[in-house]
Amino acid sequence: MNPFKDLLVRTLLLWVSLSVLARPSGAVPKSEFFRFGERAGDQKLLKKDDFSTTEIKLQVPLIFYGQIYESLFVNINGFVSFLTEIPNFFNVQFPLEYPIIAPFYSDVDITRAGNIWYRETSDPRTVTRTKNELKKYFGAAEDFNPQGIFIVTWDGVGAFSQRSDRLNTYQLILATDGKESYAIFKYADGGIQWLQSDGKDPNMADARGQAGLISGDGRHITLKGSGTDQVRSLDKWSNTGVPGLWVYRIGMIALDENVQEPDLVSEDKTEESCASSGSICHSNSVCEDYDPGFCCSCQSGYFGNGINCLKKEEPLRVTGKVSGTVNGIELKDADLHSYVLTVEGRTYTAISRMPSQIGYDIQSITVFGTGIAWLFAKPVGDVPNGFALTGAMFTRTAEVDFPQTGHHLFVHQRFKGLDVFNSVQVNTEITGSVPTVPLGSKIEMDAFNEEYTRVKPGQIRARSSRVFRLQGQTIDTPFTVETTIDFDECRWRPKSTDLNTVRLKVAENIFIQYDAPEQIVRYALSAKVAPLEEADPCVEGRQECGQNSQCVVDGDTFRCVCERGYEEVYDATLNEAICLDINECDTGRDNCHLDAICVNSPGSFTCTCRHGFTGDGFTCTREASCEGVPCDPNAVCDLRGTVPRCTCRPGFTGDGFFCSKDQGGPSVDEQRDCVDNDICSPYADCLYDDAVRGFRCACFPGYSGDGETCTPDGQRESCGTARNCSPYGVCTKKNTGYVCECLPGFTGDGYTCDVSSSVTLPPQQPPHQPQEPYPPYQHTPDDSRLPYETPQQPYPQDPYQQPGHHRPRPPYQQPDDTYDTYQRPEEIPQYPLPEEELPGEGQGSDVGWSEPQCLFGACWCPGTLQYNRIHNRCELSSSEISVEARPLPSCFSGKCICTLGYAYDSLHHECRPDHTPGYDYSIKGGGHKVRVSCNEVNTCHPNAQCVYQTFSKSYACVCDAGYEGDGYTCSSKIDISCDKVNICHFNAQCVYDDSALQHVCVCQQGYQGDGLVCTPQDECSSIQDCDANAQCLYESVSRRYKCQCNSGFEGDGRTCTPERAASCNIVNNCHNFADCIYDTYALRYRCQCRAGYEGDGTFCNPTQVGCNVVYNCGDNAECAYDLTASGYRCKCREGFNGDGFFCRSSRSCREDPSACHPQASCQPDALSVFGVACKCLDGFTGDGYTCQEAPDHEKYLLLINQGLSVLRMPSDPRGGGGFPIHVEPFMTAVGADVDCLAGRYYWTDVRSSSIRSSKYDGRERKPVISGGNIGSPEDVAVDWVSGNVYWTDSENDVVAVASIKNGKIRTVVKGDLVNPRGIAVHPGRGLLFWSDWNREGAKIEVSGLDGSNRRKLVERDIMLPNSLVIDYDLENLCWADAGTHKIECVNLDGNGRRVVMTEARYPFGLTILGQDFYYTDWNDTKIHTVDRYSGFESGARDPPLGGSGKLYGIAAVPPHCPPVANVCGADGGHCPETHLCLPNGRGGRTCACIDEALENKEAPSCNDYNY
């Protein structure tokens, strides 16, 4: 080529390149902003940090997410808000809890640089410009004529604190016509120069800038790149096609929709290159163009995939949730936290709230830690780890198989990249089963390798075989792990075949632990990622893998594994294995929802929700339908919940079924008391309340009150039982109880802990820690010296160590190498201490030793003293003991030996001090006395024997085999190991000790000793160790004491049960009123009732007086002779069933109208087996077979407990106001119920431990039950038919009943109760229901009203069941759950469970009246009304004046009693005066003794009678 032409071409290319680089970015020039500043008539925000305007009244209302706002606030930190100003910067990730519009939410400081301008205008030029811009992007804006435009400009604003080196410039325009609204965001060219401020909290970095629109009701939208490093490109990106310009329709948005993006924008099909799209690269990366396309690569000093880049060797966190089912136990959003030391490639992973039922089992699921270990493994050379490949944006699937046990586990993880704080986010789903690990056991695992093979673009697969074993055992449990990783890799970058396979090397220092008290499982792994040492087996292996299979490296060979969705099948025709498509739908391998349809496809499947359901197919929920819902014309039907509900439109108020024009509610000013005035308690926050559309004081968790006054919640579980501390916190006992505190190096309140920014990595490792652990859970005298960490470390040296006690050394540590597996003992530095800490007089310096100090989690010795881990003390080094004071070695029996206090050093041929206790090395020769022969006084070491030696003709101490020393001091086994020489007892085995790092002898199960000598271990040492029907006896065969069952019993001695043939002379099973006699006819012993009693001897009732003497038979019964009872008894007539005292027709009342009471009629009844039933006439009450005149009481009332007050109000809001019927300063009224027959209200007072009662208007007030053994009566229920009152007692953990007439008490349920709470009774069915707030397993139980036939009714998907109530129309039990925030119902037999509503915040009391549920809520102190059938909630109501604090129990007064009766309703069930009549739930009754009679040892024994 002509040189001149060549030069011309090069010059032209250079000019073109420079033109491309110098070309404007296309972002919005500042000159194209809407006019702003003083000339535009703007107002300026004061130059302060953390500042907002006062309320700005709008000339034209703004519509935002369907809500009408007549005012707004301009806030310094890059946003406008509604309802209230928010001057402070909240360092949280979007969404916030408040309605805001944020062009760039960050901690802005304009005290030194920048201005914030704002104005509302209707200027025609501005209006026209706005209208024309919106018409370009929205079809709906064609007829939009804005009446008001609000403009806010952040012009050259700096970051906190007073930063002016980089400035941000952006503008927000809000346009409205009073009916519809739009938002426009403009970002100036180069307008985003800083992403986060220096931060006000030195322990926590600020979140990166965020941009978006937030409704305050959960709906929100964020702009592309919000919260990421790429948020700096907001001026280059857009949703309109114009860089830096973003527009949204924000006004009349339906309740199930979000703000609208532009609908008139065409897609930009510009060729992708660094110039056009390189802004997606991280700020610490470089963009590389390819032909075609481009890729991003992190700069030197950083690692990642180019889109996400992290600084090398900087620690970071991984957080997320774990859900699923393991071994049949469900996990719900368990917290996963991982701390990563990238410089070491070590990860510490903790999963909290792990149920104890599977906590130990789940230790084997190391895939939790392996995925994170691969992500941040330390690279060898240029080999990329997982983060370098994926930027932590990938999905990971792991299948774990345990071939020996048949268990299989499936783990699916979705890594979502970096959040606003540069932490990695991951969600994990887990299903399947794993082998059971015994309670209290730990597992151990050897080092292992995993080979990761890139099988196709964007997919990596790995397979490894591993084993785990119980700690201290040798039996291995093998398992295999198949891993598949899917990610988006840059498709344009040329692929090298050199690193298609890399090897993950997990070192042997694997730490696995389940912390049962804290319910946390922990994994710690150190990993490197390296190239294969050998040739990649898959280079040739791929040729052998057939269709639908992939080559995966497995150790030093390869395996052909089927692609996902295919399985290996042997083809006899081809005589080889082939991969065939799995029909996941037919084989049940799909994870489609039960209400979804599964459709198979080659290698995959799809899930589609059935008709009437909505979702992604993996989760389907029933579609809510507005069809038939009678909403007011001025209301809309809201389908966001599980059931539709009516909500009045903006400008209207009401319950949605009836809406009226809003006459004006409280102004914003009136709603912002705690914002304008500091009225909240120090233990409360000022939070936004949707119910009042304003801010209210809300107490912190663990405190209760109205927010202005907060007191510690005595009923809240402490961390000692709730185990709710952060994984980086610890539960510590204080004078006030157990509290959570963060570990050193972390900051927070103990429930949430973050790493302290002041903590940096240590240049060196600390010295050795003591081998001997402190007793478990024992605090050291000085908490400041707890062995947690050095101040320079960002993470505890052992992040899994419990407070105040040490743990044994992990298995991977060398004896003098506590933390670093690669550091030699002699390399461990000694940190010098301040001079004032050096030992002085009285500290042992005169004798060459002193007590060690616990400092920074290790045992330290002052000055030049060295730590002796054997004797746990500080000693002078050997070099500091004068050589002159040392004895010379002598030859004895062919060996060099030294005198007492010294040990022979063969290397230097000298005697060195062995630091014998009591030996004074300051005196030449040690000043020790002459030893007495060991046969006279045994002075030998515990690991030595006194042996007669023929050559010296004297007794001497000789160390046991495996020990070394002079017999008076024997050191641990160093010369002889049992794996080389069999020195173990024949009842012992040689196992590897992880703590000692050598093989040791361990006695077999059933034997005890040191492994060298093992003796049979006694099974019992006293009779208390055995069953009550067993003895502790010596067994000559096994040569040990064992538990042996007594004659007539069988079992292992620990548990003994009567032999089947055992009679009452062996097992005294006779009743109290029976004797064990010898039957000469049957030739065996049997029980026989005493005179005056009748029965089979195992149960005896008093002989009844015949009805021929005292006629006491019920209606429809007759007195007849009973051959069995040998006397006259009441018997139901033919056609009736019962016990003779209470008889009911066995025929339908349609066939036999006389079956009904004279004041009843036969009417249709859908719940009756006959389709009809007897029902009492109006003015009468009963079950139709027994009717009595109904008393005329007040009706349609609600009675509510509010601490010191009992309140009354009409159920109909139009019925007038309410008033308190009783106020008592020191009362705490909680439980509530009514006696509909007597017209009385019952409530519990936990302060005075009593149950009280009064008329509905508060008259005739009296205590029903008080004193005695009542502890803390929680809830109350009245059986008005039998005349009894029931309650739950959370202090005594019982359910009790008492007679309303005489107050006599009987405990009916006890045992297996943790915190009994709600209670309800069904007198007609004779059933008793109660709830138990057991946080380990909450439940609702049922029994007869006598406590018999106890069983669980509900035990799944239940957390904090509060009040219970009976729905007599549907024969349902319903409850309010403060943990699941639901109201649910279930049939009385436990079937037919249904959810009534799902959005209750903290429901406490629950009652039913007519078609509605009424419940009290601790969150807003209001009474809520919910339709029983639709679940629609009407407007909440405030309680009457006269009370304060939380609302507790609530009871409704019905118009008449439910139509029920029972066997105790007439004449007390014919029970004696000394007994209570309690229906048993099976049509019968129990005449039950009262507790006083049962506990009285001096009085004649009392017996229950069952009929």
Please, could you describe this protein's structure?
With 1507 residues, this protein is mainly β. The chain is 5% helix and 39% strand. It is built from 11 helices and 110 strands. Strands 18-19-20-31-29-26-27-28-22-23-24 form an 11-stranded mixed barrel. Strands 1, 6, 7, 8, 9, 10 and 13 form a 7-stranded antiparallel beta sheet that branches. The protein has a 6-stranded antiparallel beta sheet with strand order 2-3-4-5-11-12, with no helix packed on it.
Compute the gyration radius: what is it? 40 Å
Strand content: 35-45%
Number of distinct beta strands: 110
Q: Could you tell me the mean pLDDT?
A: 79
Low-confidence stretches: 1-25, 665-672, 757-848, 878-884, 924-930
Strand ordering within the main sheet: 18-19-20-31-29-26-27-28-22-23-24
Bin the helical content: under 10%
What class do helices, strands and sheet pairing give? Answer: mainly beta
Summed up, the helix count is 11
Could you give a short account of the major beta sheet? 11 strands, mixed, barrel
Shape: globular
- Give the distance, in angstroms, between the N- and C-terminal Cα atoms: 118 Å
Summarize the model shown:
This protein is mainly β. It has an eleven-stranded mixed beta barrel. Strands 1, 6, 7, 8, 9, 10 and 13 form a seven-stranded antiparallel beta sheet that branches. Strands 2-3-4-5-11-12 form a six-stranded antiparallel beta sheet, with no helix packed on it.
